[in-house]
Design a protein that fits this description.
With 268 residues, the chain is an alpha/beta fold. 32% of the residues lie in helices and 20% in strands. Strands 2-3-4-5-8 form a 5-stranded parallel beta sheet. A 3-stranded mixed beta sheet has the order 1-14-13, with no helix packed on it. The chain has a two-stranded antiparallel sheet with strand order 6-7. The chain is globular and about 50 Å long. The structure holds zinc ion (ZN) (2 copies). One zinc ion binds next to loops.
């Protein structure tokens, strides 16, 4: 276990069969990671909730201990690669205490937070209406200020349904980035959006997310940025990986350090 890594050695956003919309056992991801440069692999399965909310796309709550146990066994079995146990959480105020307990009890090595649903609809599937944009940003900023999360995932997911980069889209970006700066929460450039290919927008062909205009704006702020694959299948760990780094570079972004549940990791 060490605390200095190069960005290409780190992936902290990894799913598996556990969430129901991914595939592969945890050990398949470890085997895949070992084929390339990754030596710090963080599992961040979608966090289950005790009431099994969103159970269609989240692991069953009854599997929580099995999942964490499996992460720990892999951690113990591996020498050449460090495995972390984490969760990607939906911002739900009524469950903040549950999330905090997971961290405080050290059951998890880290938690990342995001907003996947507005009005019970998966964000990329929303109609491009401004009211959804406002719901999204309120929820996202609320998540950033909760103090629970070690980093925040795909902040620009709203660009997948609201494709115009107009005054409103810019205002939303500013609100998120300024809040991330204020609370010093790193933001994530998410490789999953790159896998979907570019789409038509009023500003030309763009990835649905990560959205170029959003990240160019981030580069002007004092906000740490990390890049992850958000793999849902083992082969995705290294897919489009170089494109993610190239994208960051184009947006003038240098990837930064991160603190996971109190442990600082230098990413150079
Ligand atoms: Zn997922
Ligand atoms: Zn996500």
């Amino acid at each position: 276990m060490h605390n200095v890594y190069k960005s290409r050695e780190v992936n902290l956003h990894t799913h598996s069969f556990y969430c129901g919309h991914g595939s592969g056992q945890l050990e398949d991801y470890v085997a895949e990671a070992k084929k390339g440069s990754i030596t710090l692999l963080g599992f961040s399965e979608h966090a289950p909730l005790p009431n099994n909310l969103h159970s269609r796309s989240r692991m069953d709550y009854s599997e929580l201990e099995t999942y964490l146990g499996e992460c720990r066994s892999l951690q113990e079995a591996e020498d050449s690669i460090e495995i972390l146990a984490g969760f990607e959480c939906d911002n739900l105020q009524e469950w903040n205490e549950y999330y905090r307990d997971l961290k405080d009890s050290r059951k998890v090595d880290y938690l990342c937070g995001g907003v996947h649903f507005v009005d019970d609809t998966y964000v990329p599937y929303l109609n491009p209406e401004r009211r959804f944009l406002y719901d999204y940003v309120d929820d996202y900023v609320d998540m950033l200020r909760s103090g629970i999360y070690d980093y925040a995932v795909h902040p620009d997911l709203y660009c997948a349904f609201y494709r115009d980069w107009d005054k409103e889209a810019l205002q939303v970006a500013k609100a998120i980035i300024e809040s991330a700066q204020e609370h010093q929460i790193p933001l994530e450039i998410n490789g999953n959006g790159l896998r979907k290919g570019k789409v038509k927008t009023p500003q030309g062909m763009r990835y649905p997310y990560p959205r170029r205009e959003f990240w160019e704006l981030v580069s002007a702020y004092d906000v740490k940025v990390i890049a992850n694959s958000d793999s849902h299948h083992p082969y995705e760990l290294y897919q489009q990986r170089e494109e993610v780094y190239a994208f960051a570079k184009e947006c003038n972004i240098e990837l930064g350090d991160i603190t996971l549940n109190g442990r600082s990791i230098k990413i150079g």
